[in-house]
Design goal:
- The chain is of the alpha+beta class.
- It has one domain.
- It has two helices and nine strands, in the order ββαββαβββββ.
- It is globular, with a radius of gyration of 14 Å.
- A hairpin with an 8-residue loop joins β3 and β4.
- The longest helix is centred in the middle third of the chain and has 13 residues.
- Helix content is about 15%, strand content about 30%.
């Protein structure tokens, strides 16, 4: 089944399933209903609106390959209001570290360690240049 009709997009990056929220309500659903605690969660930093991105981690790896995290960070940048920025900081943490603060707006989350995901890794991703590439290494929409 393709991503069409789902509240999130699904792409496969070198064998890892990457899920991308489509809007505020869909971001909450993806992060708190679909994602597992051991999955990795990414979002652009600095309070910029954007999609929640989840890298599925069914094998419960402690870390993921840098290339997978980099591509997911580029997808987070692309699916955000920072799309046209030259460089974008992206928070990376475990889904287990993401929480919904009491009274927070739909789509708004915090990470353990502070509202700005203080305990997460910050990556720099390219905004506009991170559009999914064409060619043999292109991201493929999952359709199992």
């Amino acid at each position: 089944m393709s991503s069409k009709g789902r509240p999130y997009r699904t792409v496969v990056v070198d064998g890892f399933e990457v899920l991308i929220g489509r809007g505020d309500e869909e971001n909450d659903f993806l992060t708190f209903e679909v994602a597992a605690p051991e999955d990795f969660w990414l979002h652009v930093a600095g309070g910029v609106a954007g999609s929640h991105v989840v890298i599925r981690n069914p094998e419960k790896h402690e870390t993921l390959p840098d290339e997978i995290v980099r591509r997911a960070a580029e997808l987070a940048a692309w699916h955000s209001k920072a799309r046209h920025a030259g460089r974008v900081e992206v928070h990376v943490c475990r889904v287990a570290d993401v929480r919904k603060p009491r009274g927070a707006a739909v789509g708004e989350v915090a990470c353990d360690g502070g509202a700005e995901c203080g305990s997460s890794r910050l990556l720099r991703a390219r905004g506009e240049a991170s559009r999914p590439p064409a060619g043999p290494r292109a991201l493929r929409t999952s359709s199992p």
